[in-house]
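Action item from last week, closing it out:
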Amino acid sequence: MTSALVRVERHGDGDHVAELVLDRPEAMNAVSTAMAHALGRATRELAEDPTVRAVVLSSTHPKAFCVGADLKERNSFTDDELRAQRPLARAAYRGVLDLPVPVVAAVDGYALGGGFEIALSCDLVVCGEEAVVGLPEVSVGVIPGGGGTQLLTRRIGWSRAARMIFTAERFAARDALALGAVDEVVPAGTARDRALELASTIARHSPVGVRNAKAAMRQGFDTDLASGLEVEDERWAATAFSGDRAEGVSAFNEKRRPEWPGR
């Protein structure tokens, strides 16, 4: 699961935390066709790995998480070439969004356009205090196409998302935090450390429980309350009669750390 553009590293006890590293520093991680392909491939492989309990999405560039689509590459595209690239790009962003375990974005520096959409596809977004985020697509004649119109609106509401998208403004980390567009701001250069800390905390808990909790939240979010409660009940049953539940109850009563079977 390693390429010249995207790397996967393992961390923690049992290597249950996977770090998905954007590694195209010479272009500030601009998403080219090749990088979209690499990201999609890496997320598919992580999604199929039952040992992964949490994922951190980070960058090798100290001043850029990801600056969005590679506009230098697209400048030479014909309309047919742009259409041909679209499925790869969608698969890359959707691959992050659909990971079955919690994903924490570690954002230091710029996260613009598609770069911010990658972060929005994560469950939690940690920013260094010098980070800058935004969806400037309308300023270059397109719209957010990596989920931004949908994910940002669900995160912060219509009017706040409308301001960010329609004005194409860039927002400092603390301003983005005030809007609810990111979840935590930490000293510059420490977003990755904090994201790994959060992921390690998540990975200590029941993998069956965490996966089912995320699935219940995702599946129930866009339904009415009654339907959402039915989704929750289905996921409760999938967890309550698992080996993890039996181990968790035993460990609690025996005052020891659980040894999760993960099934």
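Closing note: The chain is about 50% helix and 15% strand.
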